[in-house]
Amino acid sequence: MKRLFLRWYVVLCLCHGLAFILPQCAREKGLETAPDFTLTSLSGEKITLSNLRGKTIFLDFWATWCGPCRESIPHLVNLYKTYHEKGFMIIGVSVDKGEADLVRRFATSLDIPYPIVIAPGDLEKQYGVTALPTGFLIDKDGRIIEKVLGFSPSIAKQLDAKVAALTSEKP
Description:
The chain is α/β, with parallel strands linked by helices. Helix 2 runs parallel beside helix 5. The protein has helices at 2-28, 67-83, 100-109, 121-127, 153-168, and strands at residues 32-33, 38-40, 46-48, 56-62, 88-94, 116-118, 134-138, 143-149. Strand 5, helix 3 (100-109) and strand 6 (116-118) form a beta-alpha-beta unit.
């Protein structure tokens, strides 16, 4: 009797554990809809994520003081210039709180052509941003298909390939 109870207890614990693990796996594989937001860019443009459906989007969380972020931006500028005509959009999300002038000067110095917004604290929480840079590749249906942590040549190469594939897909 104890053995039977123990078996059922183990099965129940495994099922309970899977109930928490499987949704996380689905989220990691890109089945989660990107949290919507409306923010004003540094140029005064209102940006609502859900209004950009039909485009492939890279949401880039960064800061002016972050070394890897500074390294990634020239690559993202080139990626934007290469694929923007094919429906690719980058939204730079600065986490420099209350530093709009600093962020504006920084963006101007790097000639960033895509819109930059300053993140309210809740946006970082909604997206689960805990390190910088963190990017989210969002498909044309508004689903997060990739979370990109950090920056390196290999990460850049993988991102390039995914953006190329997503922008060449037929609607």
